[in-house]
Design brief:
single chain; about 400 residues; eight-stranded mixed beta sheet; five-stranded mixed beta sheet; globular; binds glutamic acid
Length: about 400
């Protein structure tokens, strides 16, 4: 189910909204959960729900809250302790959400996911079915990474990209990132007092990406970089995004009151269905560099043939996602490899007729088939100006 396409800059213009809440907003190191603030946010959520929108919550804060409850705030924690802190914090966090939502007559359902739940196609479809059933039953999904079982190698790590993955999976038309910063600036404002605020981003280009610094605060893993990564995932799939400060009370209605926020336009030609899953893939397993002729052919909608491949790197199996790079090293597309890495290396640069001889068996013509490929939005030609 995909919500209707909307392009406005008021929350009421949107029918399905994913709201991501950063840890620093919800949790105070000393006093724990910020209940008054949460109550004000949930009041906003309830108003959107009354207006007919589906709201999904991606809430961070499990680890931060668990640390406060357990008195483990003074030092950085080894993995087992942060997993234990997440277990303690998550139960409290979920309780707080369900309690606040219930005050407005809203039901809620906790969904904890690990990386494979969005990156493996079968599990992705399974999570999607569960969340859409929750929405059908009018229960607000309250989603977080399952930090208690996630290890450092196998995790999202930041809820910005997780939220984007959830938003696009569910066909949300808007992703709201509530952060400790009120939007995107030409440079990190903490480092550069001259940094200028940017109210609207038509498309996340490499120039826009260059404006992001690294992670900003100790409690938030993300920083602006992962927010722009989230923006790329969201906007490619037709989900608009807005970043605003969650530090004030009632942070959602504040957007509609005109408080500062940066809006990111959804792609006018969003990818759909299966391609949404490919485009949002978080960590491609390999990289395939192509020559100029192949890069041109891909832009014309052709499949990637081995003949146009100049370099293959990474370890990937057939069906894994690979990034496709042009000769300058810019990512131009993402797709599912039709060969594993070892075979891809052997047939790179070969004509279709030569492949069978090298592999010793009949082979697929394409290294990445066009049906399994999504072009990067950063390379679309500039079209519209800020419509506001
Ligand atoms: N999943 C983590 C938590 O709940 C937060 C990740 C993030 O801050 O982005 O503690």
């Amino acid at each position: 189910m995909t919500a209707g396409k909307a392009t406005g800059r008021a929350l009421k213009d949107y029918r399905r909204i994913t709201v991501k809440i950063g840890s620093a907003l919800l949790v105070d190191r000393k006093s724990g959960l910020k209940r008054d603030w949460l109550a004000s946010l949930v009041e906003d959520i309830a108003a959107l729900a009354r207006g007919g929108a589906d709201v999904l919550v991606v809430s961070s804060g499990a680890i931060a809250l668990g640390r406060t409850v357990l008195g483990l705030t003074a030092r950085s924690l080894p993995l087992e302790e942060s997993q234990a802190a997440a277990a303690v914090g998550q139960i409290e966090l979920a309780g707080a959400w369900s309690g606040e939502l219930a005050r407005h007559g809203l039901k809620s359902g906790q969904v904890l996911v690990t990386l494979g739940d969005t990156e493996e196609r079968r599990r992705y479809l399974n999570v999607r079915a569960t969340i859409s059933t929750l929405l059908k039953l009018k229960a607000v999904p309250v989603i977080n990474e399952n930090d208690t079982v996630a290890t450092s190698e196998i995790r999202y790590g930041d809820n910005d990209r997780l939220a984007a993955r959830v938003a696009t999976m569910m066909g949300a038309d808007l992703l709201v990132l509530l952060s400790d910063i009120d939007g995107l600036y030409t440079a990190p404002p903490a480092l550069d007092p001259e940094a200028a605020f940017i109210p609207f981003v038509e498309r996340i280009t490499p120039q826009i990406e260059a404006m992001a610094g690294a992670a900003a605060s100790e409690l938030s893993r993300g920083g602006m970089k992962t927010k722009l990564d989230a923006g790329k995932i969201a906007t490619t799939a037709g989900t608009a995004m807005v970043i605003t400060a969650g530090t004030r009370m009632s942070p959602l209605s504040a957007i509609d009151r005109g408080e500062r926020a940066t809006w990111f336009a959804a792609s006018p030609n969003p990818v759909r269905g299966y391609k949404t899953w490919i485009a949002g893939n978080l960590e491609p397993a390999g990289r395939v560099t192509v020559d100029a002729g192949a890069a041109r052919a891909l832009r014309q909608g052709k499949s990637l043939l081995p003949a146009g491949v100049t370099l293959v790197s990474g370890r990937f199996a057939r069906g894994d996602t690979v990034a496709i790079l042009d000769p300058a090293g810019t990512e131009i597309a993402r797709g599912l490899a039709a060969y594993d890495a070892a075979d891809a290396v052997r047939i790179a640069g070969l004509k279709t007729a030569e492949i069978e001889t090298v592999l010793g068996h009949e082979a697929r013509a394409a290294m990445v088939h066009r049906d399994d490929m999504v072009m990067s939005r950063a390379l679309e030609t500039e079209t519209a100006d800020d419509p506001a």
